[in-house]
Inverse folding.
């Protein structure tokens, strides 16, 4: 289309950042749809920046964590793998890395 992105001289990094942030937002939206299709829709509360807040009963926490890891970790979408971790906590400030309890 011969369109040009314009940046102030010396601030071309802002254009690159715009592309990176836009791509990351698109990936998160795609992954939200995949999580819904995997059955987590009823438990997803809200996406916050690069996190997805999930509220689920404790008795299915292992299954939910496994589904989150399976969907969010992706080795085929890009030339480099996407990796994600799962954290849990009763409150935001008490989050810790999720480790199976069984």
């Amino acid at each position: 289309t011969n369109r040009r992105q314009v940046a102030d001289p010396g601030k071309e990094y802002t254009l690159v950042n715009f592309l990176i942030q836009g791509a990351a937002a698109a990936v998160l939206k795609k992954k939200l749809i995949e999580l819904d299709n995997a059955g987590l829709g009823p438990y997803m509360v809200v996406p916050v920046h690069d996190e997805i807040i999930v509220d689920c009963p404790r008795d299915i926490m292992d299954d939910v964590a496994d589904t989150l890891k399976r969907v969010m970790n992706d080795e085929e979408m890009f030339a480099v793998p996407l990796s994600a971790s799962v954290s849990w906590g009763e409150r935001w400030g008490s989050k810790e890395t999720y480790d199976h309890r069984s």
About this structure: The chain is about 40% helix and 15% strand. The first strand starts at residue 44 and ends at 48. The radius of gyration is 17 Å. Helices lie at 13-40, 61-72.
